[in-house]
Write a structure and sequence with these properties.
The complex is a heterodimer. Chain A is about 40% helix and about 20% strand. Chain A folds into two domains: about 180 residues, 3-Layer(aba) Sandwich (Rossmann fold); about 130 residues, Rossmann fold, CATH 3.40.50.920. Chain A has 13 helices and 14 strands. Chain A is of the alpha/beta class. In chain B, β6, α8 and β7 form a beta-alpha-beta unit. Chain B is globular. Classes of the chains: A alpha/beta, B alpha/beta. At the A-B interface, α3, α5 and α6 of A face α5, α6 and α13 of B.
Amino acid sequence: MPRKRYIQAINEALFEEMERDPKVIVFGEDVELAIFGDTRGLLERFGHDRIRNTPICEATLAGMAVGAAVTGYHVVLHMMFSNFIYTGFDAIANQMAKLRLMTGGQIELPLTVIAGYGGGRSTAAQHSDTPHPLLMNLGGVNVLVPATPADAKGLLKQAIRTKNPSFFLEASGRGGDSGEVPDGDYTVPFGRAAIARAGADITMVAIGSMLKPALSAAEKLNLAGIDAEVVDPRTLVPLDEQTIVGSIEKTGRAILVDEARDRCSAASHIAAIIADKAFSSLKAPIKRVTVPNVSMPYAPNAESRVLPSEDRIVQIATDLVRSKQLA
Amino acid sequence: MNPTNEQLVSLFERMTLIRLMEERLRADAGAGRLPGAVHLYIGQEAVAAGVCANLDETDWITSTHRGHGHFLAKGGDPKAMMAEIWGKRTGICKGMGGSMHVADLSKGILGANGIVGGGFAIATGAALSAKLSGNRRVAVAFFGDGAANQGVFMECLNVSTLWQLPLVFVCEYNHFCEFTPTVTVTAGEIADRARAFKIPCEVVDGNDVVAVWKAAAQAIEWARSGKGPAFIEAQTYRIQGHLESEDLFLAGGKYREKQEIEEWRKADPISRLAKLLVSMGVRTAVQLDDISTKIAGIVEDAVRFAEASEPADPELTFEVMFAGQKP
């Protein structure tokens, strides 16, 4: 399999889906120039009717995506940084997430929202949020958090083919990471977690951007004789509870690694599911490795202080496995 | 261009249908027979009827929380609307939306909307869809004077002008923003906001259905012919309260004088149209009474249908949340 960069895989997905279906259109701020690289080349290939720059007006863009989707297009709305989801949030929370139910299922909303999330690059607090918990709580939208180039491509293609609104959250700091990407047309189904590394002693559920530090932590732990399993949920809505619970039943220990702030994070949701469905398998308390309940600071050293790191994961995993304390 | 005599008669029929449906809802709300709140359109019938008479079934409208009139004027089924408001499974949205969310996609009714200003961007998206597919459809955004103070109004004026979208803004100036007189919370003239974008703009007597009809015919033709958006401000008056049960919680507090309501009753749009039809010799007063009696029967049938229908299916909530996917 050829190796490709994360952002290149996303770009390929857009090319292939726009090629496949003339009803796929892309709009958003600065998509023509493609500041992230994910929409690069689309204008030259597909023209201004299929991809266009918009004014900076996220509330309207999110609402327009709904209007165009209801009336026959598959809209890919690029919202640039995930914090800009907040400025468009009325149309997202009140329209996009609710119209299908409120109309008794009359409408379909084939639309995909792309936004980059996460810290680690000194973008400060307004360009670094990880908003998947907020989106998970809406109920009416899918939440996709691909961690690898292959999953990014497959999940985006799947999103563009479904009839429901999906948030495709790009790990901003991972655009240059490369990985193997299958040739040809393929999709990754929603709600199917991947076992990124098989192991026996402890389960790490690593969300999106956190897969990388979790995997490197697992290698370090291995040297210390701890065999970690790393589960990548890939999509948070829908969530593959079965694979997560199955892994805990095998290992008896859980660390949930999530770049969201701790309070009401995806990690806490998954912790609740484990406590509920795998309680009798637990040998130790469920641990969350998340961002503390603070805004992302700017200075690199301050940022490192709050972001989940390989070292923090290793430390917590080691304590957990060595501890004789039962849950 | 003026409406033909027969068009005037059908306007009378449509306005009477809206009025009698609303009167019946007023009675049933007062008697506590409806599960939720209703926001009634009494006094504003000429706007919905005059505009929608110029639309094709395939054209789109977005409506407001005061949306029964738009639904009926665009060809929505009275029985299905009544059953919806009663929370029945035979309702147009199967009891999932209620009064504030009546929608019928097959009639181009993208839905009433509980968020003030919620329809602007959806209509703009539908207009983008029409423009891209070249199907000569038009989208109409009905909104109130209250919604004109939402920022998304400006955003949609901008983007629809920029992209020359087939969109007609219809501002129903009914003098109130919920429980606050519009003049106390609004700077300048609302129509001037559209004029700033060089959008063709007409301010009409919204209780004169002929004036509304003429302005709408022109605006819709303008939009349909690809010249971009048009704007109508229809000056009218909300005879009923913001919602029917308001006296219960206003606890004697008031935001307008009875005298003012009585003055506006004298400008009742249906009486004015009746007078016109009689003076023109199109119909006699007796013939108009017969029409009203016939329509009262339709309303009675709608109520009977709603009452006799089964309550909503609670399990449907889970089925319709997503298309082909569990919530």
